[in-house]
Amino acid sequence: MGAGDRKHTEANVVAHITGPREEALAELERRARSYSPEHPRSPKRRRLLRQNDGFLLVIDGAWQSFVTRFTVAELLEDSDAPTVPEPEAQASTVPVVPPAEAVEQQVERYADGVPIKPAWLGRDDLP
Question: Is the pTM above the cut of 0.70?
Fold first, then answer.
């Protein structure tokens, strides 16, 4: 991130997966394959490499290459973890929503992978 001497590395947690490491790696690969960074604006070449703990995405632009690292890591401690309500209270207040991944698989797409109908079109829960 940044420009010139002010470039720095930025880290983000993209998801929390509960389950075996193989499931986490599969989800991480799906996210790495579909990730579209802001830079470069006109990519010339895109390479996704597998590592032991994740993936390395290298995108070559007209002037320089941009790298994004996707890593699986086990959460050991979180000082700002939300408190989890009791199962009875949680079941009554949380609506059941189908996973986005299952819904996306049924979406009709153009040959380049872009959905024909935007995901927001026809939703009645939006203003």
Answer: no
